[in-house]
Amino acid sequence: MQTLEPESQKKYLVTNSEDPKAQILFESSGMGNYFLSTETGTKGVFVQEKDLHEVWTLQFDGSCATSGCGAGVVLISPEEEVIPLSFKLQFFNTNNTAEYESLLLGMQAAKERGIKNLKAQGDAELVVNQVKRIYQVKNERLRHYRNAVWDSIEEFDAFSIGAIPRAQNDMADSLAVSASLMLPHPGLKTNKYTIEVVFRPSVPDNSQHWQVFNNDNHLIAFLEKSENFDELYFEGSTSPCRESINGQDHESGENDGICQLKGNKIPKGLVSLERLFDRHDRFIKKKKQNDPDSSPETEPVNIGSEAHPQFVNIGKCCTPEEKRKFVKLLKRYMDVLAWSYADLKSFKPKDVQHNIPLKEDAKAFRQKQRHYNPKISGTIQAEIQKMLDARIIFPIHHSTWVANIVPVRKKNGEIRICVDFRNLNQASLKDNYPLPIMDQVLQAVTGSEMLSMLDGFSGYNQIEVSPEDQFKTAFTTPWGTFAYNRMPFGLTNAGATFQRAMDFAFKGMMGKVIVVYLDDLTVFSKLRSDHCDHLEQVLARCREHGISLNPKKFVFGVTEGKLRGMWLAKKEQRLMPKELRLSKTLLCLQARMVFILSSER
User: Fold this and answer.
1) What's phi and psi for 170, nearest 5 deg?
2) Looking at per-residue confidence, does 381 or 45 come out higher?
3) Is 252 within the bounds of a domain?
4) By CB neighbour count within 10 A (0-12 exposed, 13-18 middle, 19+ buried), where does 323 fall?
5) Are residues 170 and 284 in the same domain?
6) Residue 521 falls within a domain, yes or no?
7) Same domain, residue pair 156 and 105
8) Within this chain, do residues 233 and 279 fall inside the same structural domain, yes or no?
9) Mapping DSSP to helix (H, G, I), strand (E, B) and coil, where does residue 510 land?
10) Minimal CA–CA distance to 74: which of 49, 32, 103, 98?
11) Residues 228 and 269 sit within 8 Å (Cβ to Cβ)
């Protein structure tokens, strides 16, 4: 242990950072009145004794969602005055970098307010332990963040950091989640706090991620390097888009961190997730040589009347006689097809219901109502009305469990109402019913001469929630509180319940004429001549058990197609090409884009 002058010993305890005594002092449970100090000019970790009434508390949390990332900061004064701060992060982040950003933004806010003694608290143990040197940092970007925190610590007289349970960090968490879900209007004000928009990361980002903004400065997508695209257009607009790379300008524009692209071009080799979500005609493509199709070759065929046409997709490889048989078969089973919520049926209750058993120590939780983008509030309200009309949900006035909705834009442009069931899921007992093993699914399909891909219409909503558990699914909106009659997306055991129901409905047929992975149904036939009969068997089972199928997603009579990221063909199964596979890049679903595929190698 290093020796200090007597007058210094009255104020400081100095050890090397690897000394066990330092590790004990770092732990929040054993810290007492000691705080990590950064007195310059002396080596080692410094712990300074301070009176508690001089110390401010900083609670921080980060959040990442499909709509972007956010940071939540809560500063608490010695007199317990609370200052909430919320930040929209308009650059590429992971969960860990978002946590670091929230810590650094909180420390910056503390410095701007003249705070000298700070106690930081977060629920991300990885970040906390990296800052405390308990964990090594192998990721280069996280190492930069950790070093930035250390540099920032030097500007405080006393600083400590410790981990706290998530339940004690709920305010910072709510601020981070709210910011991640908001559209990035700079200085957006709520009734209690302002959401600030941050365009640049706190540390240099050397990863190859680009940010694309529309003309309203809304972040549209993060782009990763690839060799497949060299041009980017916004749907329905000829205006140039804007971009920035790693928060640094290529050509200075009028907005910090954003620049104007000339001729709608971005550097060759950028690719986004957007093309994975929509395959309609508005996407202009030039295929590279030797690249397989992203979907089977099909053509629309009307199975309705001329006055009310209803189209399904049938493979171009089918003979006229096969197409005639398919159309005739579908017309006999029109009651199985759901073109809208009004046509939606449900599994027979005697077959399956969704139960929500809770842990013995579970406590009910009511989430506070969140704010929603006013631009889509009308769409959300219309979707809720559709669900009411279809009796998927019902109004409820008294419930001990209340969650918030999370509107998500689907690939067809419509809004899907999801619910934040995190609290209910944490309190629920886990259903361990297994999902199919993909190797076995592919083995069953191998060697098939003809395939048909079917899809359930709003699959989960076809299963009823047991009456005694419906109140647990309550969610709040500006138009009232509702609960689910039918099983919603987002429940921890919903997938297990749905797979169990499908296995029950197609018992005796699984692996012989059909494979089912949740609501993806693939009918296969080793002999082409048997395929129509196999389809009829499947449709008959759907009618028997009240299963509704989505004809808009049907693909009938093809020799190859895709299933769960795999390309199925008679002789082989292979992963989809790299440009068709999902990556972990975040995507803000606030606009649609059209890409032109480069024909150059």
Assistant:
1) -70, -30
2) 381
3) yes
4) middle
5) no
6) no
7) yes
8) yes
9) strand
10) 103
11) yes
Q: What is the pLDDT of residue 205?
A: 63
CA–CA distance, 387 with 384 (Å, rounded to integer) = 5
Q: Tell me the C-alpha distance between 71 and 91, whole Å.
A: 12
Assess contact for 446 and 511: CB atoms under 8 A: no
- Across 266-368, the runs of DSSP E, i.e. the strands, are 270-271, 298-302, 311-315
User: Of 181, 192, 253, which is closest to residue 217 (Cα–Cα)?
Assistant: 253
- The CATH number of residue 124's host domain is 3.30.420.10
Q: Are 183 and 218 in contact (CB under 8 A)?
A: yes
- Residue 567: the pLDDT is 67
Amino acid at 335: D
Together in a domain, 58 and 173: yes
Structure tokens at 194: 């302002």
Q: What share of the chain is helix, strand, coil (3-state, %, to 5)?
A: 30, 30, 45
Q: How many separate domains does the chain show?
A: 2
Asked whether residue 65 falls in the same domain as residue 137, the answer is yes
The parent domain of residue 286 ranges over 209-291+584-597
C-beta separation of 187 from 194 below 8 A: yes
74 and 167 part of one domain: yes
Higher per-residue confidence, 186 vs 117:
117
Question: Strand pairing partners for 510?
Answer: 514
pLDDT digits (tens, 9 = 90+) for 256-315: 223 333 333 333 333 333 332 332 222 223 233 334 444 567 888 888 888 888 888 888
Q: Are residues 215 and 257 in the same domain?
A: yes
Please tell me whether residues 149 and 250 are part of one structural domain.
no
